TrEMBL record, chain A:
<protein>
    <submittedName>
        <fullName>ABC alpha-glucoside transporter, inner membrane subunit AglF</fullName>
    </submittedName>
</protein>
<feature type="transmembrane region" description="Helical">
    <location>
        <begin position="6"/>
        <end position="29"/>
    </location>
</feature>
<dbReference type="GO" id="GO:0055085">
    <property type="term" value="P:transmembrane transport"/>
</dbReference>
<dbReference type="InterPro" id="IPR000515">
    <property type="entry name" value="MetI-like"/>
</dbReference>
<keyword id="KW-1003">Cell membrane</keyword>
<dbReference type="Pfam" id="PF00528">
    <property type="entry name" value="BPD_transp_1"/>
</dbReference>
<feature type="domain" description="ABC transmembrane type-1">
    <location>
        <begin position="108"/>
        <end position="326"/>
    </location>
</feature>
<feature type="transmembrane region" description="Helical">
    <location>
        <begin position="112"/>
        <end position="133"/>
    </location>
</feature>
<dbReference type="GO" id="GO:0005886">
    <property type="term" value="C:plasma membrane"/>
</dbReference>
TrEMBL record, chain B:
<feature type="transmembrane region" description="Helical">
    <location>
        <begin position="293"/>
        <end position="314"/>
    </location>
</feature>
<dbReference type="InterPro" id="IPR035906">
    <property type="entry name" value="MetI-like_sf"/>
</dbReference>
<dbReference type="Pfam" id="PF00528">
    <property type="entry name" value="BPD_transp_1"/>
</dbReference>
<feature type="transmembrane region" description="Helical">
    <location>
        <begin position="13"/>
        <end position="35"/>
    </location>
</feature>
<protein>
    <submittedName>
        <fullName>Alpha-glucoside transport system permease protein AglG</fullName>
    </submittedName>
</protein>
<keyword id="KW-1133">Transmembrane helix</keyword>
<keyword id="KW-0813">Transport</keyword>
<keyword id="KW-0812">Transmembrane</keyword>
<dbReference type="GO" id="GO:0055085">
    <property type="term" value="P:transmembrane transport"/>
</dbReference>
Length: 333, 384
């Protein structure tokens, strides 16, 4: 069967199934199990209303449980057993073996570099872009264009930046703009930017900063708009300069939003996979955890170490997870 | 606040100029690839894309017609024709030419050059040439002529034609394009539906454990996808789905749900309480309230999530690689195709650029058409 037809059938079945489930389960609840008639009408309505939320929540939480909650447990279990030895429990042996691999430490080091630089750079550029475009007539156009990379896939961005970093032999004309500028400003030999150990990490990070700046800008720009005008007017009357107003009046007031942007970009960084996979595939010392894990899983076919490295990513995410939950609960009260 | 930038005109200018610089910096990489996708392989390889709008000076090696086309006229053997036409090229004005690779700029157009094997050649600026010799020209191939020509800027749709509409091209993107579409549409619609019901329950229904479930959704919002890969692959294999569209649809639904529930609940909570309570008093059931009041009112939030989920599934590589693409490669998606091309066609930018833009084009259209909803979704979705 042609996949497109299969797709249409799935949409119809999926959508129809969902709607049917919600409709008929409600109908059965109200008409068959607890009919709103007869002698127990009041009791029945109350009981039906006790059960109804779970009908509404059922499919969603089944899917959440199966696709996100259960895997957390299962990955932890898999990281503690050895598949080749008949799924025997091996304790921390997978972790020990992983820690013994230099490639793991390289991935960990690079991930920390990414964590250090990308959220900071994306937030800083986002803040700069938000402030610069805030009061100019063509600000919305400028924002649109800076925001645009958000719509581009990491793989597409990888191709875009690979052309920027492209290297041609010294006697040929450079077609990558970075090398062309490098030669123009007096560089002698064209550089293969993505193969220079350590520094190539930064050339990969630029790609993610380029994508995430738009996101940071959109969120921060909304926050800047929300700053009460009178605080700024008061500062102007007191003789504050534009830079003082920005750093001492505006930034402190949107600190909460800056933190949100920072953590959101941090989450993206922790899971960064496509960019490294498409551009260097972890060669030349550019490995990161997510790609290391993919490598272990699908190339080395080692589920033990693969799961162990996934748990390392989970461990790094946990502080943000806890912080978010605490904040969400505070808001609900 | 206007007077922050307005009091000093020099500062206003600085703001305009820095904003423009930032925009150009952010656009440049994409524009480079975009322009490259409209250039031929030759053009891309010989000059940077930033030179594409200008005529380029190129050294071409062309060949006259072979000696077997010569004709004898009044004791002279003559070969005539046009150098560009012999090579099936566009005509371009020739500035200088030569007949030896050591002196490619020896003659002006219209001048006559002595050939090493005897005879003469005269090349005109438009590429017309005339070779004359008192004896017959010999050999199997024509005379090599080195010309320096000014090639006008030229753009072509040929790359797109080849990557999208050429059925013989095994590297073509058309199949991957439809596969991506097949993945994306169900994976966008189904989670919205499931999430909307759950979000309504979490927002407007009273039941024990509600706060706990909301906290769970917030927690699952940040669980890395990476953790789900092996357990779910195992699960899919054991229940017989294996690798295929069903699996990838289910996976995208599961992974998209936390954000969907979170976005929609936050929006629905903000809807006016009066409307819902009035409907209750009038005897509407929860199901009716949901379908007749909540869903129409929640359209902006639904649209926001739909766009986020569409972009995410369209641009995804990891989930497709793990749950969809098998060894046969029949179900490959565009992102995966591009990664493969990066491996096999690393330097062929006409192929890479075109493939990338076939894949980028649709999300860019959606982006520019529905930016308002995307912004709204991001604003609501970043956990406060």
């Amino acid at each position: 069967m042609h996949p497109a037809i299969q797709g249409i059938i799935t949409i119809v079945l999926g959508v129809g199934g969902c709607v049917g489930y919600f409709y008929f389960s409600n109908l059965i609840l109200d008409k068959v199990i607890f009919p709103a008639s007869g002698s127990n009408i009041g009791r029945n309505i109350n009981r039906a209303n006790l059960i109804r939320p779970w009908l509404f929540l059922g499919p969603a939480f089944l899917a959440l449980g199966l696709y996100l909650a259960y895997p957390v447990y299962e990955t932890m279990r898999l990281s503690l057993i050895d598949r080749d030895a008949g799924n025997a429990f091996v304790g921390l042996a997978n972790y020990k073996q992983m820690v013994g691999e230099p490639k793991f430490w390289e991935a960990l080091r690079n991930n920390f570099l990414w964590l250090l630089i990308v959220p900071a750079a994306a937030t800083a550029f986002g803040l700069l872009a938000a402030q610069l475009t805030d009061r100019i007539s063509w600000g919305n156009l400028a924002k649109s264009l800076i925001f645009m990379p958000m719509a581009i896939s990491f793989v597409g961005a990888g191709v875009i930046w690979k052309l920027v970093y492209e290297t041609r032999p010294a006697d040929a004309e450079q077609i990558g703009i970075l090398n062309a500028l490098y030669i123009y400003f007096g560089g002698t030999d064209p550089q293969t930017w993505l193969t220079i150990p350590f520094w190539n990490n930064f050339f990969l990070m630029i790609v993610l900063v380029w994508i995430q700046t738009g996101f940071a800008m959109v969120i921060l720009s909304a926050a800047i708009r929300g700053i009460p005008e009178d605080t700024i007017e008061a500062a102007i009357i007191d003789g504050a300069g534009p830079f003082q107003i920005f750093f001492k009046i505006k930034v402190p007031q949107i600190m909460g939003t800056i933190l949100v942007v920072w953590t959101t970009v941090t989450l993206v960084v922790l899971k960064v996979f496509d960019i490294v996979f498409a551009m260097t595939n972890g060669q030349w010392e550019t490995q990161v955890l997510a790609n290391y894990m993919f490598d272990k899983l699908f190339r080395a076919n080692d589920w033990g170490i693969g799961s162990a490295s996934a748990m390392v990513i989970m461990l790094l995410v946990t502080p943000i997870l806890v912080w978010n939950v605490v904040n969400a609960r505070r808001e609900l009260r | 606040m206007d007077n922050i930038a307005g009091t000093k005109s020099s500062l206003t200018w600085a703001v305009h100029i820095s904003a423009a610089a930032l925009v150009i910096l952010w656009l440049l990489p994409t524009v480079g690839l975009f322009i490259s996708s409209f250039r031929t392989a030759d053009q891309i390889a010989t000059s940077g894309w930033w030179k594409a709008p200008f005529p380029s000076v190129q050294n071409l090696t062309l060949r006259s017609a072979a000696p077997d086309t010569q004709r004898e006229a009044g004791g002279l053997f003559v070969i005539e024709g046009n150098l560009f036409a012999e090579d099936a090229r566009e005509q371009a004005p020739i500035t200088v030419y030569g007949v030896s690779s050591r002196a490619v700029d020896a003659f002006q157009p219209g001048e006559t050059a002595e050939l090493r094997k005897g005879g003469t050649i005269t090349v005109q600026a438009n590429g017309d040439y005339r070779m004359e010799h008192s004896e017959a020209f010999t050999g199997a191939r024509g005379q090599r002529v080195f010309v320096t020509a000014e090639i006008p800027p030229e753009f072509t749709l040929g790359n797109y034609d080849k990557m999208l509409f050429d059925p013989a091209n095994v590297e073509g993107m058309s199949k991957a394009f439809f596969n991506t579409l097949t993945v994306t549409i169900p994976a966008t619609i189904i989670p919205i539906l499931i999430a909307a019901f759950a979000a309504y329950a979490l927002a407007w229904m009273e039941f024990p454990g509600r706060v706990l479930l909301i906290a769970l959704v917030v927690a699952l919002l940040v669980v890395p996808l990476q953790l789900a890969l092996i357990p779910l692959l195992k699960l899919h294999n054991s229940i017989g789905i294996g690798k295929g569209y069903i699996g990838v649809w289910l996976a995208h639904t599961g992974f998209g749900l936390p954000l969907a529930i979170y976005l929609l609940r936050n929006y629905m909570v903000g809807l006016p309480k009066d409307i819902i309570e009035n409907a209750r008093v009038d005897g509407a059931s929860d199901f009716q309230i949901f379908t007749k009041i909540i869903i129409p009112l929640s359209f902006p939030a639904l649209a926001s999530f739909a766009i986020l989920q569409f972009l995410w599934t369209w641009n995804d590589l990891l989930v497709a690689k793990v749950f969809l693409i098998d060894a046969s490669g029949e179900t490959t998606v565009m992102t995966n195709k591009i990664v493969e091309l990066l491996g096999t066609r690393g330097g062929n930018w006409e192929i890479l650029a075109t493939a990338a833009f076939v894949s980028i084009g649709v999300p860019l259209l959606v982006f520019f058409a529905m930016q308002k909803y995307l912004v709204r979704g991001l604003l609501a979705g970043s956990v406060k």
